[in-house]
Amino acid sequence: MQIYRMMWRVLFVLYVGVFLNIVAFSQSSDDAHQALLKLYQEFVKFRRAEVIEGIPDYSPAVIYAKEKGLESFRQRLSAISHQDWTVSEKIDYLLVRAKFNELDFQLRVTRPWARDPGTYVDMVSRIPFADTPLSEGSKKSLRNRLKTVPKILEQAKVNLTAVAKAMADITIRRLERSDGVNQGEPRREVPPEGVIGWYKEFIQRLSKHHPELLADANQALSSVEDFRDWLKTNKSRMTASVSIGLDNYNWYLKNVRLMPYTVEDVLKIAEVEYYRTWAFLRIEQHRNRSLPELEPASTAEEHERRVRESETLIRSFIDKHDLLTIPDYMPPQFDTDAFWIVRPGGKRHFWEEITYRDPLNNHIHASIPGHRFDNLIQRRNKHPIRGRYGDGGRAEGWTFYLEEMFLQAGLLDDRPRTRELFYIAQLKRVLRVPAEIKMQTGELTLEQAIQYLIDEVPLMEENLARYDLQIYLRQPAYGMTYLAGKVQFEKLLSDRARQLGKDFDLGKFHDEFLAAGSIPIILIRWEMTGLDDEVKKLW
Fold first, then answer.
1. How many percent of the chain have pLDDT more than 70?
2. Which of 34, 337, 455, 495 is deepest in the core (most CB within 10 A)?
3. DSSP character for 164?
4. 109 vs 95, 253, 260, 294, CA distance in Å?
5. What is the C-alpha to C-alpha distance for residues 504 and 514, in angstroms, rounded to an integer?
6. What are 65-116's pLDDT values in tens digits?
7. How far from the centroid of its chain's Cα atoms is residue 162's Cα?
8. Is 70 in contact with 93 (CB distance < 8 Å)?
């Protein structure tokens, strides 16, 4: 009986402590926003993976602690009174809550440590990208990283308890074969075959410069190969569902992405955009029927010249038409995503087919004033919440909008065949939506979704289709952000233009949008226009 009395006393003390904590939060209204900032700073540290001797720990005990810890963070958030806050402060509250929901979704639904073998391959795949020869400090760091590889992959075998066969297949293919896109990898004339190929290539370089690292590198390679073999051996028993389902997808859109749309809404938007884009492409092709086709660049020098000419054209067009402000801290030129490479048999993936013909579309989207330009602006955002936030719908919506904005603004008036490329790129981004959603609802397999894109998008081929769709299978609601974000941006532009009438200035509007941070567009719309018809549904 004494033990039970002691347990009840402990529980009572804990209950009183939580109650007083809640009262303290609710009574200190003047300091409530500061309490939110402090709570978010604590959460940023809490959500990071537990790392022991350089090895992320996803053991059941750690995951259970994350679940219980998240409950505590939710209680503390709900105790903060925000009724009298400004719009900007309320936006902070919604951003923090969305981050809590994101972790909740990861713990309940996606569970990458248990469902996705690629999670562990991500941890070890970039190690062999290291340049050689190495400095003494880099050599020590690399040796330590190589020693973690066997431990990470052994942990994976224990934690991967809910794998779908499709996820295993994706990982095996990644380990054994080049994806044919090679984005994010060091440039090689002949890219190595998969992660295993990169380790073998790295070992060859180490043998010339750092033979003292060969034992650790060979052990790492053996562990990667063993993990591949383990996946193959156990794949027949990996029977979990690869899709997250419609209900989970809708919950994620509303509570994490803060989208004002349901899955049904997004599919309808994609259907309308699909018809519109195909119609405009066919009209453009008819208009240009007597003109010669664009020929792809034939050398690296020609490709680089076209890229540089494209950037000069973009910058001068922005300045001439006051489309936005290019800050002084921007570099004089940006790199390109589609670097030059000659592949066996002259094959090119989708973006190479587009960019080698004319780099404008890709350079607008990925470089200026798209992702690279945007990222440099966001890095200078010192806001304790917005400055650490990154929303895919905001980032991809902005860059997708830019493609059509430049087309409509006249950048391509003397490049009729390039306009066709812009519509083809739009078509690809639009058709990601049904392909991704139907994979996540179980209506399409990965292979069927790949074929769908190949059948529907001109210039599309297997490598780029697979590269994209594997990402969207592993990261739900990523592929749809391009179109959903673009449509939200266009609505915001329309709302603001109608509010300001003759005082509306497109360049100032773009600058204000970029200054608002990389946060969901539904919140930027509320702050810029004062319209709360969408955001009130989030409360």
1. 94
2. 337
3. B
4. 20, 13, 21, 46
5. 16
6. 999 999 999 999 999 999 899 999 999 999 999 999 999 999 999 999 999 9
7. 24
8. no
At 239, phi and psi to the nearest 5? -115, 10
Distance CA 397, CA 216 (A): 44
Rounded Cα distance, 347 and 296, in Å: 12
d(CA 115, CA 507): 45
Structure token pair of residue 210: 């750092």
One-letter amino acid at 6 equals M
Cα end-to-end distance, the chain, whole Å: 46
Closest listed residue to residue 480, CA positions, set 523, 440, 450, 424: 440
Phi-psi region at 476: left, alpha or beta (left = phi > 0; alpha = psi -120 to 50):
beta
pLDDT recorded at residue 20: 36
Question: Could you tell me the CA-to-CA distances from 146 to 117, 130, 226, 315, 328 in Å, in that order?
Answer: 19, 11, 15, 44, 41
The per-residue pLDDT for range 329-352, each reduced to its tens digit, is 999 999 998 889 988 888 899 999
Structure tokens at 52: 């022991």
Q: Give the burial string for 367-402 (b: 16+ CB within 10 Å, else e).
A: bbbbbbbbeebbeebeeebbebbebbbbbbbbbbbb
- Give the other-Cβ count within 10 Å of 31's Cβ: 13
The Cα–Cα gap between 66 and 57 comes to 12
What are the residue ranges of helices labelled H in 258-299?
263-287
- Digit-coded pLDDT (tens) for 183-222: 999 999 889 999 999 999 999 999 999 999 999 999 999 9
Which amino acid is residue 271, in one-letter code? E
CB-based burial of residue 334 (10 Å sphere; 0-12 exposed, 13-18 middle, 19+ buried)? buried
Domain ranges of the chain: 2-115, 118-237, 246-538
Q: How confident is the model at residue 29, as a pLDDT?
A: 52
Is residue 268's pLDDT more than 90? yes
